[in-house]
Predict the 3D structure of the following.
Amino acid sequence: MPHIHVTCAIIERNGLVLAARRSALMQLPLKWEFPGGKIRAGEDPGECLKREIREELALEIDIAGELSPATHHYPDFIVTLYPFICKAKTSGFKLAEHAEAAWFPPGELTGLDWAEADLPVLDAYLATLERKS
Ligand SMILES: Nc1nc2c([nH]c(=O)n2[C@@H]2O[C@H](COP(=O)(O)OP(=O)(O)OP(=O)(O)O)[C@@H](O)[C@H]2O)c(=O)[nH]1
């Protein structure tokens, strides 16, 4: 079974968080995710993430922190997500691959239909916000 290693970005700006919806043509069609992508051989995960966010959303980010990696077994592949908490330098983005993307108040994120691997990541992120408040 293939095991892929994927960075993903929890991008914050003005108290909102960016979530993106996979296109109908992608794996896990129409599921919401934290945008990112596969780490290339020898690539630094943070650099991978900045590259992916630039390619997919034309957005520049700064990395502010990271959460523990989370491994999930889908029926046909295993993914380990490497989640980073990021700050967007601007609010505007341009979709290159996703069906849609939008800025959400953190409390609304749990209402989205997430890729299963993201659920523990979302919980861990929301827990960091609880600890801050
Ligand atoms: N980017 C991203 N992928 C996720 C998340 N959760 C999750 O299960 N995945 C899965 O991890 C894989 C990442 O693939 P991708 O298609 O986003 O990565 P990529 O841009 O490097 O792909 P490519 O090189 O095939 O174009 C997909 O199978 C996707 O369904 C997530 O939060 N973000």
Remarks:
- The first strand starts at residue 3 and ends at 13.
- Residues 3-132 form a domain with the Nucleoside Triphosphate Pyrophosphohydrolase fold (CATH 3.90.79.10).
